[in-house]
Amino acid sequence: MIRHSVTGLSALVILLTAGAAMAATGRVGIKNSAFSSASLTINAGDVVEFRNEDTVYHNIMSVSDTDVFDLEAFGPGEVRKVTFSTPGKIDVICRDHKSMKMAINVK
Fold first, then answer.
1. Residue 10 belongs to a domain
2. For 50-61, what is each residue's pLDDT tens digit?
3. Could you give the CA distance from residue 8 to residue 34 in angstroms, rounded to a whole number?
4. Would residue 13 count as lying in a domain?
5. How many angstroms separate the CA atoms of 93 and 2, rounded?
6. Which CATH number do you get for residue 93?
7. How many angstroms separate the Cα of 93 from the Cα of each of 4, 19, 22, 85, 89?
8. Does any domain span residue 75?
9. Which of these, 17, 40, 63, 68, is most buried using a 10 Å CB contact count?
10. DSSP H or E stretch at residue 66
11. Is the CB of residue 58 less than 8 Å from the CB of residue 96?
């Protein structure tokens, strides 16, 4: 019985590892109070990394009903990550700099 449990646990670890390996990371830079791209297309389960390459703080957040997030204020050199799980279009802004807008399209 113990051998069967260990085998089942090994299979679970392999499945979880394979799922994690399939997720991709998209990168969005923030510089001169602008996103590095106006849009980004990713798959459900992917992670988007927001890198503050600017000299000021930014507060990145979604203004869509799906995958709601608020990264709160983060400063120069800091990185914040978000995992997107629901397909659809996510509109993203900076709470502090209203001209900063982008769309993340989750497939």
1. no
2. 999 999 999 999
3. 48
4. no
5. 52
6. 2.60.40.420
7. 50, 30, 28, 19, 13
8. yes
9. 40
10. none
11. yes
